[in-house]
Amino acid sequence: MLPSIIIGLLVVMLALWLLKRHRVRVRREELLSSPLPAEAVKTLQQNVALYSRMPDHLQQALQGCVNRFLYDKVFVGCNGFEVTDEVRLTVAGNACLLVLQREKKYFPGFETILIYPETFVSGQVEYDGLVETHHDSARAGESWHRGPVVLSWQDAQKGLRHERDGNNVILHEFAHKLDEETTIMDGLPVLRSPQEYRAWAEVLTEEYAAFLQRVERGDNDVIDEYGAVSAPEFFAVATESFFEKSHSMQRKLPALYQQFKGFYGLDPAQW
Fold it and tell me: Cα separation of 72 and 66, whole Å?
């Protein structure tokens, strides 16, 4: 049997750990209902294209989500890049659009966001049977499974300057983070209820097949062709279009728009 002093120490350590968890939980809840300073709001107005068009109650909710995001996540500058408040708020403001109306108003499973000044090179591995091929690939962003999100600030800014082109690397990489909440990244995120999975599977399967045909014909215009790489990439680029080309998606791909509207709990075409 363990000596009573060791048992006592273990009890104290457990109590301290539980107290710390409680304080963190309370702090996170406080942050979700706290407004941002005026200067931070100005950054959201400038760098989150949808912010100024959102209803007031959603603007307030987004501020709370940003507060919590900045409390939870660690930003690391790479290749000499300096992470400023503008960078943090811009990434947080765009990313938090994805969880604004979801039950989990945060991105679990990882902590770190790596920011490069410009497009970065990432090592890739491809398999053809037993043959393994390694090569380098230039990237604007990356989401490592159960690991960090990696972003090029130059590419992020480019997407922000063209707010309705359907290209937003921040939305794209954080959509992947929602996708992987099911433990695998397959284009099927955690939906709001079990009843929604059948319709989601039917619509997304049909829409993805139609999308591939449009890409092959050369008449695709709502969703970026990069989505043809795989179902997870289709989910990520469709997310970009849902927020940045909402009117086009609602008009030309109404069934897909309805599924994303239900998933995100938002209707940006109405803003």
Answer: 10
Residue 174, Cβ density class (10 Å: 0-12 exposed, 13-18 middle, ≥19 buried): buried
* 53 neighbors 247 (Cβ within 8 angstroms): no
- Structural domains present in the chain: 13-182 (1.10.472.150), 186-271 (no CATH)
Task: Name the pTM for this structure.
Answer: 0.85
Cα of first residue to Cα of last residue in the chain, in angstroms, is 65
101 closest CA partner among 270, 263, 269: 263
φ, ψ (nearest 5 deg) of residue 143: -125, 110
CA–CA gap between residue 77 and residue 156 (Å, rounded): 14
Beta-sheet pairing, 149-152 with 112-116:
parallel
pLDDT digits (tens, 9 = 90+) for 158-189: 988 777 788 899 999 999 999 999 888 899 99
Both tokens assigned to 197: 């999975």
8, exposed or middle or buried, with CB in 10 Å at 0-12, 13-18, 19+?
exposed
